[in-house]
Amino acid sequence: MLFNKPVTDIIRQRKSIRSYTDKPIEEEKKEALTKFLSANTTGPFGTKSRFIFIKATGQDKEALKGLITYGMIKNPMGFFIGTVEKAPHNLEDFGYLMEKNILMATDLGLGTCWMGGTFSTSRFAQKIALKNNEILPAVTPVGYAIQKLTVRDSVIRNFSGANNRKPWSELFFHGDKTLSTEEAGGYATPLEMVRLAPSASNFQPWRIIKEPQSNTYHFYIKRSPLLKQFFFMKEDLQLLDIGIAMCHFELASNEQGLKGNWKINNPNLRGMTDKLDYIVTWIGN
Ligand SMILES: Cc1cc2nc3c(=O)[nH]c(=O)nc-3n(C[C@H](O)[C@H](O)[C@H](O)COP(=O)(O)O)c2cc1C
After folding, report:
1. Same domain, 189 and 277
2. pLDDT digits over 129-152, tens only?
3. Residue 2 placed within a domain
4. Domain harbouring 74, CATH code
C-alpha cells in the first residue's frame, strides 16, 4: 500500500491549511517525505517532474508575494517545491504528482495548501535550480495545522466556498443525463473522491462522462476564463485540477481493486461537451 491509511480516508481528511503551529516536523517524517518526493517523478502522460522539500525561511514570504493570497500563509515549517518539463499535458502530470505528495503529507498528519502561480523567477526557482526546459507551477507549505481556524482562515474558506462541493448532478454524466451511483457501480467511490478534490478557487472544473455498458470514463475540463484573467495567471492552472482529479480517481480505483489505464482517445461526443474541453479517458478493465 502506498499510504498507511486507506486513500479514501486521507482524501476525506485533507483540507487546505493556511496557519501552522510552531511544532517542528519530526526527522523521520522529513525523511519519509523526502524519499517519497524523490521517487514520485513521472506522471500518467509521461512528463518528468522533480520535487524537493525545503525548510521554510523568512525569505519565502518574498517568493509568495506575487500571489493574491500573499500574507495568508502563516508560519509554515517547510515547503514542497516542484518543477515539470515543458511538454504537452505537463500541467496535468504535475497536478497528479504534487497531489500524491500532498496525500502523503496528510497521511503523516501534516497540513498543506496548494498554491498555484508563477514562481518561475522566484526564490523557490533558485532553491530547486529551475532549468530552461522546466516550469514551476505550484508550491505547498507544509506543517502542523493550528487546531482552531483563525478568523482570517474562516474568511478565506468562506470566500473560496471551500466547504462546498458541487453535487454529482453537475459533475458526472451518462450521455446528457446525470450519472447515478448505481450506474457507476464500483466506480462510485473513485468518482466521489474526484468530487472531494481540491481545485484552484474551488471551481471544480472536472466533468466526467461514462460510456454506456462499460467502465470507460471520459474526463473533460470546464474552463473558467475568469480565473485566468482575475488572477493574471500565466499557466493554465485548471489543468492542475484535472491532474489532481486523475490522481484521486486512479488511487481510489486501485484501492477498490478496479484496474484500468489512461488513454487519450477523444470520443468526439456532441451536446453538453460543446462547452467542455476533452482531456483524457480512463479505460477500466
Ligand atoms: C491548483 C490550485 C491552486 C491553488 N492556489 C491557491 C492559492 O494560491 N492560495 C490559496 O490560499 N489557496 C489555493 N488553493 C486552494 C483552494 O482554494 C482550495 O483547494 C479549495 O478552496 C478547496 O478547499 P480545500 O482544499 O480546503 O478542500 C489552490 C488549489 C489548487 C488545486
Report:
1. yes
2. 999 999 999 999 999 999 877 777
3. no
4. 3.40.109.10
